[in-house]
Design goal:
heterotrimer, A mainly alpha (290), B alpha/beta (518), C mainly alpha (381), A: 290 residues, ABC transporter involved in vitamin B12 uptake, BtuC, 12 helices, C: mainly alpha, 14 helices
């Protein structure tokens, strides 16, 4: 049972990193639906780098680098070219999905390195995650940079006439979001489940995207949501711990996704919608400039 | 025609010389010169589309000129962004609000301020801002969320913000367009204080002559991107300025005598209420009847529930209470399609976002109100050739300037697009016409044209609900005038009783009965 | 950027012709092919030889070409599944789930009649085949309708919903065909049971009748969008939902309708591949591969810029490429996933070509430097 908890906490960091990056991204007004693609790319490159160099650090750095690169590419399309952000995001997803399947194929199988150690029984990423959540919250709500970010996402026109370079702020956020997404993928492929297989994320990226909406763009709520969801997911992997024998294991695997749909529907119901709508960055997804 | 105004000290404080700016397909500014003296109010006057806002955007760094340069105190300066402008002490308050509605007043003031680099220190910022408020005589609740403020208060937040960022030159772009008459008075008084007691220089951009005459020291007139006059205000008269602005006379449309006798009520509205997008009750029980062959003018400043009223009547917003009756039939919950079919025509205020589809051709835009019409949908197909014929008719009748009916609507200028929309709606011969800010942003010619067509609809027996912020427009077109304030109609007055000062006061909340009681 | 006396900038393109659209599509595909030659570098004989193998098998070989056609029909149907909601501005990325749902629904018919033990048709086999096909269509349509309904009534993001459904149905199929599920084959090898021969879809020259449906749909869809009132409404809604609502177009029924139609195509695609393609006739253990293949439909629709007829050659090309690449992968000992990589590259070049489509380089005479300051009067006239 304790093992389950530790595993689920580690899983929650994966959701959390990706979702946190996307939260910052969306607070600045940029929507990146290709989150899954960035995670896949980060995870794959991290796996390859770590296996080739037998060094975890290089693996994580590779993930951060490729995440930043893809994030910046998305930024270029969305900010400089003022293109449709959904098209760009979908493009990044399919691009990553396709290329990582090919590039990672020779590395299919276990990582083959000694597992990353734990501190006090928990993966080090759990501590990193809490730290990041706290830092992000502080940055967004207690610093001038955070005010600029939030304003860029609510009313970029207001930010611009206040002398803020909206484009630069958004680029920063989208790159940061990309880095975190890459990190999330690396945590999965290097620590949580260090066995590479194509499309290893199986939809986690999209769940992270949903988590951002659930959290109403509040980092602490995101932490709670990621933890809950990961616990649910971990449970679905080993249902015999709680409800032995009931339902095929395949049905259990499908359950978290079904629950996500239900939650999405619930938070969109009219009595909840106004509150949610007020929390949403006003300019999310809309290109600025011209 | 011109008089040289000797600047104090020989050099103008702020000058722009030879400013030229081209946008795709249009020359917005053509070798424009501007000279502003310190500590004075300089008005830039012109119609919509004359280039005033573009010129100000150049001064504020939002737009880079193709040619020309800006000089501050005789020295040439480069303004490549609002950041540069603010560093030089140039601040701008735009026509549309540039505030983050969800944040507090203080947060908006802090945005972009050097104070706000690194950690935010709300307490210190609050002290500094309060001192500033006292110095300039401005009263504001710093903890309020901006969406809770009135339009006038929001504008003062923006002015204060510019001053807090160190602006000594304040550019105001059409500041009075969203204010009630009393708020306008407060603004003018406040600006006079700023200029006379604090030495702030004000550049006032407007198309409203009374404001120019009341506040400015010097006025520069722009027409079609060129400077056509520059003179001290004391030497100017309204007629001369109008002549400069337009270049010739435009006869205003005038109301013919209303048909006598009782006309049938087409539309009856009873205690209609509605919520706005933020969940606040914006419309609080409005009742009136719209009769055939009349124009009922709803006079009010944006944000008093008119938008919600029109949207409920058009079927685009659910009512929170009350009823709507068309010819006695219960129309409260009809969807937009049903309303079009029953003869209600709607001209929205947002011509680009709601009334038209930018990438669609003009023919396809015409189809927007005809795709359900049996005359144009034989056997589930859409009669594109028939629609093209109709579109050509509209283009001619309404003098819409477009190369052919298959250009995308985004190629049309605002005035031409509005004429197309008007033509398309009127082609359905609606019995009830809902016109929401129909002449907003149009130049004088186009506005006069639109007003003329509204009068034509009235003459043809339609009931027209005209919702406008322009008191002159309401007074010149309406048979009855109904000022609206905070979601309620203050009164419904026949034209003869609608005196401009009284209506203006009603738009700001003054009520006859209350005054009579006191 | 200054070049001599001229200024070169980039501006949004104001008008575009259909020819232009075709050109950018061709450029995108060509560039992707060129880029993917990198994938073929480790092949025995080099990239050029690899390409020759790919195209020879896909288009010149009798069996290869037949397989290409089968796959092209599948991709074409997937393309339509994405295309119809896309023209309404909605993203139906639930193509795999609709394919799976279609397959499951179609196979439910024989399953109810005995499954692996079905040896003689209880009624006319032609009727049963028809029922299977219809079941497939309905299965996909109903599933997609869920996403459409959630989007229309509650404004739930359809990308998230359809992606969740992808995962849910992936596991649902696994449940059905593996480890004792109801559709498991008699041999219990982790795959679905095979169709009895009397339930095979009619063939013509080796091509199942679904080809007719696919090509017919291509023509009908183009006609729908260009000529009908409904097509107009879909297009209007896709470009500006607010204006569409203003014009009386119902924002509730339209999303549901386009998703139902899209899902129907997806379900038909599932029926086609699992129940109508010779050599398959079951839900295979590697069904996930076909689900992934469905994503090609997205790119096909984007490159064809929403045209049904335009999607036909693109689908043929993609089908041939992915098949040929699979073969080349085996023959030339390439790593697994060449066709996936191609998918990714095509998407990337499409997005890049989309930029080309939207912008154009503009030459303008450079501005003269500003004249020195003169302290003269500003007014004229």
């Amino acid at each position: 049972m304790l093992e389950l908890l530790a595993r689920s906490l580690e899983a929650s960091t994966i959701f959390l990193f990706a979702a946190l990056g996307e939260l910052v991204d969306q607070r600045a007004g940029v929507l990146n639906v290709g989150l899954e693609g960035l995670m896949l790319s980060g995870g794959t490159l991290a796996f390859i780098a770590a296996q080739l160099t037998r060094d975890y650090l290089l693996g994580f750095l590779a993930a951060l680098a490729v995440g930043a690169l893809l994030g910046a590419a998305h930024g270029f399309f969305a900010i400089t070219l003022r293109g449709d952000q959904v098209v760009s995001g979908m493009g990044l997803w399919i691009l990553s999905f396709g290329l990582t399947t090919y590039i990672g194929n020779p590395y299919t199988g276990p990582l083959g390195l000694e597992r990353i150690g734990t501190w006090l029984g928990l993966s080090p990423f759990v501590y990193l995650a809490v730290l990041l959540v706290g830092t992000t919250w502080f940055l967004l709500f207690r610093t001038g940079v955070g005010l600029a970010i939030r304003s860029a996402g609510e009313h970029p026109g207001a930010a611009e006439v206040s002398g803020i370079n909206v484009g630069a702020v958004r680029y920063l956020c989208v790159t940061f979001g990309g880095m975190l997404a890459g990190l999330a993928g690396a945590v999965y492929s290097l620590s949580y489940n260090p066995v590479w297989n194509y499309n290893f994320l199986m939809g986690w990226g999209f769940v992270s995207l949903a988590l951002v909406f659930f959290s109403m763009w509040n980092p602490w709520l995101l932490l709670a949501g990621a933890t809950l969801f990961a616990a649910m997911w971990q449970l679905s992997l080993s249902p015999e711990l709680v409800l032995p024998g009931i339902l095929s294991r395949y049905i259990w695997r499908a359950l978290p996704f079904a629950i996500t749909i239900v939650i999405l529907a619930l938070i969109s119901a009219p009595w909840f919608r106004t509150r949610w709508g007020l929390a949403k960055p006003e300019a999310l997804g809309r290109p600025y400039g011209g | 025609m011109t008089t040289s105004v000797e600047p104090a000290g020989g050099q103008p404080f702020l000058a722009a010389r030879g400013i030229t700016k081209r946008f795709p397909g249009v020359l917005a500014l053509d070798r424009v010169d501007l000279e502003v003296d310190a500590g004075r109010v300089h008005a830039v006057l012109g119609q919509n589309g004359a280039g005033k806002t573009t010129l100000m955007n150049v001064l504020f760094g939002l737009v880079q000129p193709d040619e020309g340069a800006v000089y501050l105190r005789g020295r040439r300066v480069s303004i490549r962004s609002p950041h540069d402008a603010l560093a030089l002490g140039i601040g701008m308050v735009h026509q549309t609000r540039r505030l983050v509605a969800a944040h507090t007043v203080l947060e908006n003031l802090l945005l972009g301020h050097p104070q706000a680099r690194g950690l935010l220190n709300p307490r210190r910022a609050r002290r500094e801002v309060e001192a500033l408020c006292a110095r300039y005589g401005i009263a504001l609740d710093l903890g309020a969320r901006v969406w809770q403020l009135s339009e006038g208060e929001k504008q003062w937040v923006e002015i204060l913000k510019a001053l807090y960022l160190g602006a000594r030159i304040l550019i105001l772009d059409e500041p009075t367009s969203v204010l009630t008459p009393p708020e306008v008075e407060r603004l003018l008084a406040g600006l006079r204080t700023l200029v006379r007691e604090q030495g702030v220089t004000v550049l006032l951009v407007t198309h409203k002559l009374p404001i120019v005459m009341a506040l400015s020291d010097t006025v520069t007139v722009l027409r079609a991107g060129r400077v056509v006059a520059r003179l001290p205000t004391r030497e100017a008269t309204e007629e001369r300025l109008v002549a400069h602005m337009i270049g010739r006379d435009i006869a205003p449309p005038h109301l013919t005598e209303a048909a006598g006798g009782e006309r049938p009520a087409l539309l009856r509205v009873e205690e209609l209420a509605a919520y706005n997008d933020k969940g606040v009750l914006a419309l609080r029980g409005v009742s009136f009847a719209l009769r055939a062959g009349e124009i009922l003018g709803i006079a009010g400043v944006t944000g008093n529930g008119q938008e919600e009223l029109v949207q409920v009547l058009a079927g685009l917003r659910p009512p929170a209470g009350g009823r709507v009756l068309l010819d006695g039939a219960e129309a409260t919950w009809w969807p937009p399609l049903e309303r079009w079919r029953r003869g209600i025509g709607y001209i929205p205020a947002e011509r680009v976002e709601v009334a038209s589809i930018a990438p669609f051709t003009l023919v396809e835009n015409t189809a927007l109100t005809f795709h359900f019409d049996p005359a144009f949908t034989p056997r589930a197909l859409l009669d594109y050739p028939g629609l093209e014929r109709l579109t050509r008719e509209i283009l001619t009748t309404y003098a819409v300037r477009a190369p052919h009916p298959h250009v995308p609507a985004q190629h049309l200028s605002g005035g031409n697009l509005q004429k197309l929309i008007l033509g398309r709606v009127l082609a359905r011969r609606p019995r009830v016409l809902l016109a929401h800010l129909p002449t907003q942003g149009l130049d004088v010619e186009a506005a006069a044209f639109v007003r003329g067509r509204l009068l034509d609809a009235r003459a043809a027996g339609a009931g027209v609900l005209l919702v406008s912020e322009d008191l002159d427009e309401i007074l010149s077109l309406s048979d009855r005038v109904a000022p609206i304030y905070e979601g309620r109609l203050v009164a419904v007055l026949p034209r003869a009783e609608a005196h401009p000062e009284m209506v203006g006061a009603m738009m700001a909340g003054w009520r006859r009965e209350a005054a009579a009681r006191s | 950027m200054r070049v001599g006396p001229y200024l070169l900038t980039v501006e949004p393109r104001r008008t575009s012709s259909p020819l232009h659209g075709v050109l950018t599509a061709v450029v995108a595909i060509v560039v992707a092919l060129v880029l993917s030659s990198v994938l073929f570098l480790p092949a025995e004989g080099g990239p050029l030889h690899a390409y020759r193998v790919v195209f020879a098998y896909a288009f010149a070989d009798r069996y290869g070409f037949l397989a290409t056609v089968h796959r092209a029909i599948y991709l074409l149907l997937c393309t339509f599944a994405f295309l119809v909601p896309f023209r309404a501005g909605l993203w139906n990325i639930g193509l795999p789930s609709q394919v799976y749902a279609g397959g499951l629904a179609a196979f439910a018919v024989p399953a109810l009649l005995g499954g692996p033990d079905l040896t003689t048709p209880p009624v006319a086999p032609g009727l049963l085949v028809l029922v299977m096909a219809v079941a497939g269509v309905v299965g996909g349509a109903v599933l997609a309708a869920v996403a459409g309904l959630l989007r229309a009534r509650l404004n739930v993001n359809e990308i998230l919903v359809t992606m969740m459904l992808n995962s849910i149905f992936f596991w649902l199929v696994a449940y059905m065909i593996k480890e004792g599920g109801p559709f498991m084959s008699a041999t219990g090898e982790g795959e679905g049971f095979s169709l009895p021969s009397f339930l095979y879809a009619p063939l013509w020259a080796g091509v199942p009748v679904t080809a007719l449906l696919a090509v017919g749909a291509a023509v009908l869809l183009d006609g729908l969008f260009a000529r009908t009132a409904l097509g107009y409404r879909i297009r209007a809604f896709g470009l500006n939902p607010q204006a569409a609502r203003y014009g009386g177009i119902d924002p509730l029924t339209l999303p549901i309708l386009v998703f139902v139609v899209g899902g129907a195509f997806g379900g038909l695609a599932g029926y086609h591949y699992f129940a109508a393609v010779p050599g398959v006739y079951k839900i295979p253990g590697n069904y996930g591969y076909y689900g992934d293949l469905a994503f090609y439909g997205i790119i096909c629709a984007l490159i064809a810029r929403g045209s049904g007829v335009g999607a036909v050659p693109v689908a043929l090309l993609f089908a041939g490429l992915s098949l040929g690449a699979r073969l080349a992968q085996g023959q030339l000992h390439l790593p697994f996933g060449v066709d996936y990589a191609l998918l990714g590259l095509l998407m990337m070049t499409f997005v890049a070509s989309h930029v080309l489509y939207q912008y154009q380089p503009v030459w303008r005479p450079a501005a003269e430097p500003a004249a020195p300051p003169v302290s003269a009067d500003a007014a004229e006239g």
